[in-house]
Specification:
The chain has 491 residues and is mostly helical. The protein has two domains: 364 residues, no CATH class; 114 residues. The protein is 63% helix and 4% strand. The chain has 22 helices and five strands. Strands 2-1-3-5-4 form a five-stranded mixed beta sheet, sandwiched between helices. A hairpin with a 3-residue loop joins strand 4 and strand 5. Helix 4 packs parallel to helix 7, helix 9 runs antiparallel to helix 10 and helix 14 packs antiparallel against helix 15.
Length: 491
């Protein structure tokens, strides 16, 4: 019966996420274009040791795939069209993560785990966006839930395996390390026990995953750049790096408005705890610590909401189990009039919230389109093979490369990959983005600093376009979202 329920829940998740992905025929994020194309190259060319498609990035001389297992899973699906391939994998991974939440609730014997899953998937529009993103963090969320579970249950072998898979799928291994350290010191402080197996199995699993990556030891440098260098420079360099909105901090007000039902439930539990204090189980205490980490990360960068939402939901349902007797959380309790009214109010609020969040998600997701497809096709009539295409933003390259890998582009996925290896050109690039240069020198700047005479930029770079016009560049393509330009070839 339990197996049948779990299969049914997984199938429901598959249908739900297929419905979400079907709202647009296009890949929904620039990163997705990169992942789909790289997986295709893995299948057709084998492991990519070098990345010649960039001219001013750390990857130019030392490419390392920080999400190797994700691309390996995606590769066989690229026999289909690339949008179909990456949408299929996104559906499978999002379903795995959602089912993982349901299954862990089941294992903890939380009543109504199906209702818990419904709350999770409909509690936040932004969380739903993140769970539908064609990126490897989708499975990292599910694996982080299993890592948290194995920590609380002290299933050391399962913890080792989960950590190994996590480091092969995703570069952000600081999260499982934080979970393990918090659980270790929590047990040491309150129970006077040093569980060294907790440290050794988790760190050993992460280390094995890192070592099994075929890009080892390059991936160690990439890990440093991604987890430490980029974070430190984005916070302290004094330079505006024009990073993605997902890296922006999230205010308390914004976070509350994103997940009001979960926070309202958590507030009610806190009030209940203060009025009738009780000793919580070690599992619940440790999940409170795990949620605290994800909350702190979300306040620093809104991208981590994909972790804080499921961990808050898990904590909330564990607290409900502890504060309410099992009979109070069963169908039999609905015979009581007060309990019936309370259940009706809960269902009404959650249903209305679900309708609102799903409507907003569908409306926004339907607007997703391919920004650079037409401009990329236009380049074929003007650029030669291996020519460097100037781009105004770091997330332009992946989509242009997806449609046309005959050319080279400045930087992929993160501007600080350019800043790390080519700081002088990076600063000059930032000046060009905002139009802080003499238009008379533009052709010379592009030629000498970027070895480029042709480029594509988004329409938001209006200052740069105006300087192009003043410098005598030819606009070879333009629509409401994008413009492409070129200078004549010079000897």
């Amino acid at each position: 019966m339990c197996l049948a329920k779990n299969i049914f829940i997984f199938l429901i998740c598959l249908v739900f996420f297929w419905f979400c992905q079907a709202q647009t025929p296009f890949i929904s994020e620039p990163d997705g274009y990169f992942h789909a194309k790289l997986a295709y190259l893995f299948r057709t060319q084998g492991f990519i040791k070098d990345f010649p498609w960039t001219s001013l990035s750390y990857w130019k001389d030392s490419f390392s795939d920080k999400e190797f297992l994700y691309h390996l899973l995606l590769s066989p699906l690229t026999f289909f069209s690339l949008p179909t391939a990456i949408k299929t994998l996104t559906v499978l991974l999002a379903s795995f993560t959602s089912w993982s939440f349901y299954r862990i609730l089941q294992i903890y014997k939380v009543p109504f785990p199906s209702f818990g899953l419904f709350i999770l998937l409909t509690s936040s529009t932004y969380f739903l966006f993140r769970l539908n993103a064609p990126r490897p963090h989708v499975i990292a969320v599910g694996l982080s839930l299993w890592i948290a579970y194995t920590i609380t249950k002290r299933h050391y072998k399962f913890l080792f395996t989960s950590c190994a898979f996590f480091s092969l799928f995703y570069t952000g291994i600081f999260l499982p390390i934080a979970f393990v350290l918090l659980a270790f010191f929590h047990q040491w402080f309150f129970e006077k026990k040093k569980d060294l197996k907790l440290l050794s199995y988790s760190i050993g699993g992460l280390a094995i995953g890192i070592a099994l990556n075929p890009y080892f030891p390059r991936n160690l440098i990439m890990f440093f750049i991604t987890n430490f260098y980029i974070l430190s420079k984005s916070l302290s360099s004094g330079i505006t790096h024009n990073l993605g909105a997902e890296l922006s901090p999230m205010t308390t007000r914004s976070l509350f408005l994103q997940i009001p039902t979960l926070f309202a439930g958590a507030f009610g539990i806190v009030v209940l705890f203060l009025s009738a204090p009780k000793k919580l189980s070690r599992v619940t205490q440790e999940f409170f610590l795990f949620f605290s980490v994800t909350l702190a990360l979300t306040m620093n960068s809104m991208r981590f909401i994909e972790y804080s939402v499921p961990f808050l939901a898990m904590l909330l349902f564990l607290l409900c189990k502890e504060f309410f007797p099992s009979k109070a959380l069963s169908f039999h309790s609905l015979k009581n009039a007060k309990a019936t009214i309370f259940a009706f109010l809960i269902l009404s609020v959650t249903t209305l919230t679900a309708y609102r969040n799903l409507s907003h998600f569908i409306e926004s997701y339907k607007a997703k389109s391919s920004k650079f497809r037409l401009a990329s096709l236009e380049l074929r009539d003007h650029a030669t093979d291996n020519e460097i295409i100037f781009t105004c933003d770091w997330d332009d390259g992946p989509e242009l490369w997806y449609y046309n890998d005959r050319y080279r582009y400045l930087v992929f996925l993160d501007p600080l990959l350019m800043f790390y290896s080519y700081p002088e050109q990076y600063l000059q690039w930032r000046k060009l983005q905002v139009g802080a240069f003499d238009s008379k020198n533009l052709q010379s700047i592009l030629k000498n600093d970027f070895h480029s005479r042709i480029g594509v930029c988004g329409s938001e770079f209006g200052h740069f376009r105006q300087k192009l016009k003043d410098s005598g560049a030819e606009i070879i393509f333009e629509d409401p979202l994008v413009f492409a330009f070129k200078f004549p070839q010079t000897p």
